[in-house]
Each structure stands twice: as structure tokens, then as C-alpha cells.
Amino acid sequence: MLPPTETVRRPRSLGLSAARRSVMAQDDPVVSAQWLHEHLGMPDVKVLDASWYMPVENRDPWKEYQVAHIPGALFFDLDGIVDRTTDLPHMLPSEEAFAAAISELDIKNQDKVIVYDGKGFFSAPRVWWMFRVFGHKKVWVLDGGLPQWQASGFNVEKASPDDDAVLKSIAANRAVKRVYNGEQTNTISFQTEFQPNLFWALEKVAQNVTAKTYQQIDARAKGRFDGVAPEPREGVRSGHIPGSVCVPFPEMFDGAPPSLLLPADELRRKFQHAGISLDRPIVVTCGSGVTACILALGLYRIGKRDVPVYDGSWTEWEGQSDSDYPKVTAPGTA
Fold it and tell me: Which of 16, 93, 207, 273 has the largest CB neighbor count within 10 A?
């Protein structure tokens, strides 16, 4: 059974006497907490806690998962299921490594994967994008994440070190390490099919800076984009890739916490207000490839389903030579 064609949105202010309703297409990128609650435990519905936080936040998503998670959810480690050949943070792993990890999580190609995170909308869209890059289309983000799940009055559960869910998550990380170490892995049951149209690397972006074929949208805060506020990573200057437009990722949500993804018509207005033509191709970027996926999620809702993410994003671009990879690091500079 696919996610419903309609989801109930809770009242957004005391002035609303009934919950707002938002029509949802069958291929919408999110499902409601109510839908997940009704389908939780079905054998072909797999739930992943993909919580991840910026280093400056001093939060441990693995510990938080063990304290409270949606019943039956497994932990997806964004810093574990990664490309281990680079120092860049949480880059997309190889097909083999991803397939090995997902197989350890006991997710199969016919399964519906629902991803959430502890903030509501932050890191879960990154995992949504990862599944899509590797050809798995049956993947959705939980609208509002764990905060909305709890606000809806639904239960959470704890995990102990010897729980099957914990062991599977640990095994997934180990499988990635084995692949990159050239060691034998367990039987891989999850099949991947790489979608190059959804993934951009450094040189593709460099070509686009000159060609200007794709509109570049940056999901970071305006201060970081403009080069007047610091980056959260030590040694990384703030600024942006020339030709980019700033659409901070919180623009994708409604105002009242727990935040939900905006309806399609409001999302369209957000992008159009920023000067984005929805009739032209778009590539999204951010600091390290996480919040760019939130923009990709919003664009997917309005019908732009082939939007690539620049995986290395600003962290990679900023680390290159200024002569070969120009930057706008302060107002009026390039």
C-alpha cells in the first residue's frame, strides 16, 4: 500500500478550529506521522532514524537513538555509511558499500523506506537522496520527523546494546569498512542502480560556473553565503560558488514547530521569489551536502524530480585553489 493521497496537518495557530489538510500525490516525498503510525510494523515498511547534527551542537545522535526512537526503527549512521577514501565529511559511499550496509539493515528492494531525524527536517532528506541516487524509489521522509511523531502522541522506545536493531546498525557500519578494506562481506541482498543525474562532483560544478546551464541554489544561511558569518567548520571560509542563489533550507518549512514541509504552491513561491526559474534545470548545494537535500526534497514536491546535489558542496569547493575554483567570499568579491 502506498502512502495516502491526503494527510492531515495539525492546526497552526489557536485561531484555527480544525486541522488544515494538504493534498498529497502518490509520489510525494513525505508521509505523515499518522500514516506511519497506521503502517508501522508491516513487513515491507522499514523505518530509519537518520539523525545527525553539526559538530558545534554537541549532540550524539547514536546515544539519542538508544534513548528514544520510533518503534522498530534502525539507526542510519551518516558518518559511517560514507566514502572512506576522502577526508570530506559524510560523502556518498560506493554502490557496493551502500548495498552492503543496507543489506545488513535487512532492507530489501521491494521495501518502503521511511526516514526521519531528531530535528524534524535536517539530515533525513540526505538519506532520502542517497537511496534515490542508488535507484531505490520507494523512499519517503517522515513529515516533521521525530518531533512531529511525539507531538502526535505516538510512542517511542529505547534500545539496549544487545538489541537486534542496535546490532544491525553496527553491522551496517562494519560492512562499509570491509568493502573499503577489500575484505569479504556478508551476502549482499540489496541491489543498487546508480543514478548519475542526481549526483554532481567538483568538476561538474566547475563546468557549470562557466556554462551557467543549471541554476545553482545554496541552502546555507544568508550570512554564511554572503561571507559575513563564519562557517561551522574550522578552517573553512564563508562565501559561495559564483553564480549561486541563496535559498536557506528553513524556507522549505512552515513556521510553527514541529515544522512540516510547505505545500507545493507555497514552495513554488519561495523559489520564484528568490529569482529561480522552475522551467530551467537546477543543482543544489550547501555546506557539506546535507541541507542541500532539503531543497531537493522541496523541489521534488513541486515536480522537479531530477535535481542533482553537489556532494562535496562548499566545504570541498572552498578547499580548492582560488585561481581554478573562484569564490565569492565577501560582498562584491569573486
Answer: 93
